[in-house]
Amino acid sequence: MKLSKQLSIKPASGYGTAFHFIFVFVLPLLLFTLVRLDFVIIAYVVLLLSKWRMFAIRMRHWVAIIRANAVDLMFGASMVAFMSLAQTQAYQLMWTVVYILWLLFIKPRSTTLFVGLQALIAQAVALSAVFLTWAEYNTSLLVLATAVIAYLSARHFMAAYDESMSRTTAYTWSFFA
After folding, report:
1. Which of 79, 67, 87, 73 is nearest to 29 (CA)?
2. Which runs of consecutive H residues, i.e. helices, occur in the chain?
């Protein structure tokens, strides 16, 4: 028993934290570079690939993990959309800084206040991005996207509470959105 306690691996000197902060800065900058080079589709693919840990578990858990990470994916995809719609490089850099702030200060928090803030911000930003980019598309596609965004945001919000009717509340929120 003592041998297993001695062999446990722990980060030395905070290298893991330093690498985490480097990767947090590299992802938005990489997305900014890809959008500047007009590789917007590749930027979306890189954003999805940055969430590779979601798929490193058994397939039966994928739905729950995707639902848990949906708010972050919606926010990231919205930032890529806003960067691609921005007319100047300064606005694109502004959206990059907003995404860095999201990754550093809002996303890692797990108190009920910050979980609610994450859901509120992600819903507002994702709905804005959908209505800006898909304005000419079919109305039923817009309604479906709005319902999915509202549902996932409500489920994220309700996950912070022990609510027995969280699924029903999320469906209701989605319906009225």
Report:
1. 79
2. 2-6, 15-36, 40-49, 62-85, 89-101, 112-133, 139-158, 166-176
Here the tokens at position 104 are 């550093």
151: tokens are 């549902």
First to last CA, the chain: 55
Overall domain count for the chain: 1
In a domain, 10, yes or no: no
Query: What residues contact 100, with CB distance under 8 A and at least 6 apart?
Result: 24, 25, 28
Nearest to 125 by CA among 98, 144, 151, 162: 98
pTM: 0.87
Residue 149's domain comprises 17-176
Residue 169 lies in a domain: yes
- Nearest CA to 149 out of 62, 95, 70, 83 is that of 70
d(C-alpha 132, C-alpha 126), whole Å:
10
pLDDT profile of the chain (177 residues), mean per 10: 48 70 90 97 95 85 90 97 97 97 93 94 97 92 96 93 87 91
1 found inside a domain: no
